[in-house]
Design a protein that fits this description.
Methane Monooxygenase Hydroxylase, Chain G, domain 1; single chain; mainly alpha; 142 residues; 4 helices
Length: 142
């Protein structure tokens, strides 16, 4: 059962990596619609990952409790240890790709916010951005 969930979780991580790589390419193409559509799928994959991770944790804990005199690494077979190692490597790759994706999202967000600020100056926490002077067409204090 543990190996089944390890294979499934690695597949989920690989899917997240591929979707994030696709999102990075879509950001470069300014195809925001595809990015918004993939975010729902990525959210579902993250939930599936969390559920599988919980099951894997329970299985590892069960194995450890059944063999209290041994270290977990001494109990698991080589295939399971390799799969755990692969899962960790894939998670590190996902972290790296997510960092790249986040940097691009922040850059695009800052770009759009700066455009909006140029067009529509706004107050930010008591400070007003310098922008074009507003003309008063009607003075109500007369």
């Amino acid at each position: 059962m543990l190996k089944y969930y390890l294979k499934a979780i690695i597949k989920d991580i690989d899917n997240l990596i591929e979707l994030t790589k696709e999102d990075i390419e879509e950001i470069k193409r300014a195809n925001h619609e595809k990015i918004f559509n993939s975010s729902k799928l990525k959210e579902e994959l993250v939930i599936a990952f969390e559920n599988k991770k919980s099951i894997i944790d329970q299985e590892l804990l069960k194995i450890a409790n059944e063999n209290p005199k041994f270290k977990l690494e001494d109990i698991l077979d080589d295939e399971t240890k390799n799969m755990l190692s692969l899962m960790r490597e894939r998670l590190l790759e996902l972290k790296k790709i997510n960092k790249e994706y986040a940097q691009m999202v922040i850059a695009v967000s800052e770009f759009y916010n700066s455009l909006l600020d140029e067009i529509f100056p706004r107050e930010l926490e008591g400070y007003q951005k310098v922008g074009p002077k507003k003309q008063v067409l009607f003075n109500a204090s007369i």
